[in-house]
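new request in #modeling-help
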Amino acid sequence: MRSRGLFARSALVLGLVFLYVPIVSMMVFSFNHSRLVTVWDAAHSPTLKWYKALFSNEQILGAAFLSIRIALMSATAAVVLGTLAGMALARFGPFRGRLLLAGMTTAPIVMPEVITGLSLLLLFVAMGQLIGWPRGAGAVTITLAHITFCMAYVTVVVQSRLAGFDESLEEAAMDLGARPVTVFGRVTLPLILPAIASGWLLAFTLSWDDLVITQFVAGPGSSTLPMVIFSKVRFGVTPDVNALATILVLIVATGIALSTVWMRYREKRRERDLQLAAAANL
Amino acid sequence: MALLTQASGRRLVAGIPLLWLLLLFLIPFLIVFRISFSEVRLAIPPYTPLISWHQGMPTLDVHTSAYSFLFTDPLYVSSYLYSLKVAAVSTLCCLLIGYPMAYAIARSRSATRSVLLMLVVLPFWTSFLLRVYAWIGLLKNNGVINNVLLYLGVIHQPLTLLQTDFAVYVGIVYSYLPFMILPLYTNLEKHDPTLLEAAADLGARPLRAFLAITLPQSAAGILAGSLLVFIPAVGEYVIPTLLGRTDQLMIGRVLSDEFFENRDWPVASAVAIVVLLLLVVPIILFQRLQRRELEAQP
């Protein structure tokens, strides 16, 4: 028993090292003076020059701005559509089209991205010929594509949260005469709010990060941040990308740390409230 | 059940996402399918129409040349086989590394458990592209790994690590490991520890108890994790492009090149349809697992 515990635990430590070494090495070399990225120039390092280069690179800043705009729109629309789909799948019982909806919300999660990208571009081309919209590829087509694959993830998150609650609270509200819209706003929505929040964050990250699908549906004029990074790193390492990576990792790590602390706090408060309620009942 | 009694309201809630996915997920595949039966031509759009008019009569114009091209040029067949091999080996490596990790997390105390889970998930939230890119700096000839090994005197010549099969395996395992660990963890966490205690009381050695109890019980988790890695890995584009060989392409790269470099839409579509045919069984399996997971009331 003990020896197997030891084996699993050392595998865990080694696995975590494996997960973090590349990220840490990228962060360290972002402060390196040398252009040679992986050869540490001790005489002139650490330096912030790649960070300065990054913030004066208008191509990268412009692409980052476009990516943020697309991610904000896609995540928001994906949350609306995904919540509707999650509600339908978790609460409506059997209905016509249910199997189709369930299939179409899980398939995009594993579908190879080149296939999704190709099929969406061919759709936009066909639509352009048929109804004259969208005219050419760009931010609009990218956003439509992102909404589609992001909503699949939101659906899964919302659906599994709803599956964790039984329907008695919603039924009680109905019995007390609440209209369906009121039940949703006052009972269901507060219950699934954490799932909606994490679904939105997930969708934002996926949209912000996507390269392959975006490359297919983006026109010549619009380059998102991953597209700019990919064209830079395709032919080797460049130090300002290391600086960019460091900034992104720090933002994500801070965000996750803050949300973990906040969730712990909420959990604690809920436990305390429950204890108080129990004490009051005695 | 009783949430939206009004049928029209329900129809709206289910109908909007259904309509969206029909238009932007299902119909696009039908278009790919249809274009795969065309021939390339110099026009806008660059493929022959499905229906042509002969003396006022519509005739169906179905070309299978794109498909016969796929099976006569050995480049495509070898790319398909290579992609399946890379995906299978990477999935196995993910499983061998991820299983003990998930096991250790599931058996840890609940306070450390959430920290460990966060550590596994955190890389997933940082850019996928940048994490793959980080491996270029580690693997190249004057990269970190070679420099460390040279410094330690383990090797005297830098090893060629980049642009090899090894680099692709490392890249895929690295990027997809969280997708293996999470379903395994969800599964292993539900196991009843008293079963193992009973086995130990009856004199079973830990390995035997593991093989007889834990492993069979975690079959669903193993399958879910493996499918989450295998299916997207077959069509992987970024990792082999940045880290992989230049003399042997994976099928995702071939598809992309056919479309963007050769501008051959019918062949690119046929490549996509054959990938889908290869993956249809794993995808259906994954959907069934996912449905069972989501619809099982706790």
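bot summary: Strands of chain B lie at 51-54, 57-60.
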